């Protein structure tokens, strides 16, 4: 397939796999298997996505000063929660109500029991159900990935596949950290390729009748669900160390149901972490 014309079908094939978390080398292997040469593969994947940057290149101080933190200084809705021990932001009406409704419907199509990375953890720690909507190649979800990445100012390739969670009455996620504790087996397993979790971008998809708040107990702050509202925080300190003040509790739903989107960003991705085009509308 040397010098072949790249069809929309193959462009879609390549980008969907990259965006849903398939490693670049595996995408390249699949393309070679389908007869593509190196030059065409590079054209499909672009040079920026040919490999992940090493963790040693991560500028954690710059990451703590991601474009979102500067946008919050003059944005009409986005604001920093007044705490000194962590970077915590709230963005009401981040998603339109109709988009939230579409994502709820997509979530309910493919629910599974939520899990934790610790296979020996008490199953009562996390009792919600989850949907791996980021692995579907759905256009709405890919547009959402772009929206979230642009809002934070960090390229989508530095993030995990998007998940949604559904919490019914009495379901919760007890106090936990989003980061992996360095030196543990979980850290060795889950950070070897993409690095540590950095920022968390969470969005409530509906109003909850009663309960379901997100409690940051060490910060003494509880954020209540509102349809379309985003809650964003940095799990790390500016020096790259983990921040224990980010411990949080998805509190029990007392009445109704709660839907949330969860998007975790990582230390490693492809190309520039802070694309210039993401800062145009700051």
TrEMBL record:
Q: A single GO molecular function, which one?
A: iron ion binding
Q: Which cofactor does it need?
A: L-ascorbate
- Its domain of life reads Bacteria
Fe2OG dioxygenase domain boundaries: 158-267
Which InterPro entries does the entry mention?
A: Oxoglu/Fe-dep_dioxygenase_dom, P4HA-like, Pro_4_hyd_alph, Pro_4_hyd_alph_FE2OG_OXY
Q: Which region is the signal sequence?
A: none
| PROSITE patterns linked to this entry | FE2OG_OXY
Q: Name one Pfam family in it.
A: 2OG-FeII_Oxy_3
UniProt keyword annotations, A-Z: Dioxygenase, Iron, Metal-binding, Oxidoreductase, Vitamin C
Q: What is this protein called?
A: 2OG-Fe(II) oxygenase
């Amino acid at each position: 397939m040397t010098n072949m014309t790249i069809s929309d079908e193959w462009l879609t094939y390549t980008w969907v796999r990259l965006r849903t978390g398939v490693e670049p080398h595996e995408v390249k292997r699949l393309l070679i298997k389908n007869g593509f040469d190196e030059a065409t593969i590079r054209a499909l994947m672009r040079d920026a996505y040919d490999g992940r940057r090493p963790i040693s290149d991560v500028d954690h101080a710059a990451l703590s000063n991601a474009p979102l933190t500067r946008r919050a200084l003059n944005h009409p809705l986005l604001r920093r929660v007044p705490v000194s021990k962590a970077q915590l932001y709230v963005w009401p009406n981040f998603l339109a109500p109709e988009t939230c409704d579409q994502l709820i419907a997509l979530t309910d199509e493919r629910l599974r029991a939520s899990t934790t990375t610790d296979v020996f953890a008490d199953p009562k720690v996390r009792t919600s159900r989850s949907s791996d909507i980021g692995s579907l190649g759905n256009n709405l979800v890919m547009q959402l990935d772009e929206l979230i990445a642009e809002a934070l100012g960090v390229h989508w390739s530095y993030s995990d596949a998007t998940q949604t969670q559904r919490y019914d009455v009495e379901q919760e996620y007890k106090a936990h950290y989003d980061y992996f504790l360095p030196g543990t087996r979980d850290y060795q397993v889950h950070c070897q390729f993409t690095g540590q979790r950095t920022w968390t971008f969470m969005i409530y998809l509906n109003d909850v009748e009663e309960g379901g708040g997100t409690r940051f107990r060490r910060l003494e702050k509880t954020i209540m669900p509102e349809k379309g509202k985003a809650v964003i925080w940095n799990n790390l300190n500016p020096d790259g160390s983990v921040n224990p003040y980010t411990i949080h509790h998805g509190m029990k739903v007392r009445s109704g149901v709660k839907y949330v989107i969860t998007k975790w960003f990582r230390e490693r991705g492809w190309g520039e972490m802070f694309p210039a085009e993401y800062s145009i509308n700051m």
